[in-house]
């Protein structure tokens, strides 16, 4: 149907690829652990929106520019790396608040919560500014489309939507699980602060890795 073959293999492969750790998963877990499942789901939805941009661009052939133009790839790569590093620095600079309401100036509170729209934007930009995601869709999805398919862009979009739907199931499940685990473990403000900082350090490392990535 639609020139698609081996759909079951595509779904299983997509689920396994979504489970692999990366900046998306780290962002979701950090937001869920420090601000609850709604914040984690906001990050997940932003990531899903960014993925849809890549899927649409690949279906229209725009992502092929990144695969063939060294200049375009380098520009997007450096912008994406700079944004990921900037997010990491922001997490490293997080500070505890002091709770004056209980009459104790030394009682710590968790780091200030980010608005959901800003968390959504973080997820979106972290994903959409990563050229490796665009190249992944160009390399992975066409393997499941017949060479003689009547409408290859439609088949690509359909497979991309299936991939993203499965990814959203995983990402939102990860957000809810992380928030539940944090609540059960009763993560204290100081622990949440250091979780933020560790995630920030990992973001900086991932940004540096992206900056050093080669075009393939």
Total domain units: 1
Widest β-sheet, arrangement of strands = 1-2
Number of beta strands: 2
* SS summary, helix count: 9
What is the beta-strand fraction?
A: under 5%
What structural class do you assign from the helix and strand content?
A: mainly alpha
Poorly predicted residue ranges: 100-107
Order of H and E elements = HHHHHEEHHHH
What is the averaged pLDDT score? 80
Radius of gyration, in Å, reads 19 Å
* First-residue to last-residue Cα separation: 31 Å
Helix content: over 70%
Shape: globular
Largest beta-sheet characterization: 2 strands, antiparallel
What does this structure look like?
The protein is mainly α. The protein has one domain. It has nine helices and two strands; from the N terminus they run αααααββαααα. The chain has a two-stranded antiparallel ribbon. The longest helix has 34 residues, at 152-185. The radius of gyration is 19 Å and the shape is globular. The chain starts with 6 loop residues before the first helix and ends in a 5-residue tail after the last helix. The relative contact order is 0.24. Residues 100-107 have low confidence and may be disordered.
């Amino acid at each position: 149907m639609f020139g698609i073959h081996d759909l079951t293999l595509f779904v299983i492969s997509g689920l396994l690829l979504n489970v692999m750790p990366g900046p998306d998963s780290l962002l979701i877990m950090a937001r869920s652990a420090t601000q609850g499942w709604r914040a984690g789901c906001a990050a997940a939805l932003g990531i899903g929106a960014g993925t849809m941009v890549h899927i649409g661009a690949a279906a229209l052939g725009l992502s092929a520019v990144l695969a063939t133009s060294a200049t375009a790839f380098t520009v997007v790569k450096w912008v994406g790396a700079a944004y990921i590093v900037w997010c990491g620095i922001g997490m490293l600079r997080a500070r505890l608040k002091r709770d004056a309401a209980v009459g104790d100036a030394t009682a710590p509170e968790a780091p200030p919560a980010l608005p959901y729209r800003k968390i959504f934007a973080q997820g979106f930009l972290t994903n959409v500014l990563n050229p490796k995601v665009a190249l992944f869709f160009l390399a992975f999805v066409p393997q499941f489309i017949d060479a003689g398919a009547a409408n290859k862009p439609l088949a690509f979009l359909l497979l991309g939507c299936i991939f993203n739907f499965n990814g959203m199931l995983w990402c939102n499940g990860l957000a809810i699980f992380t928030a539940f685990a944090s609540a059960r473990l009763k993560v204290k403000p100081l622990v949440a602060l250091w979780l933020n900082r560790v995630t920030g350090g990992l973001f900086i490392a991932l940004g540096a890795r992206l900056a050093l990535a080669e075009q393939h």
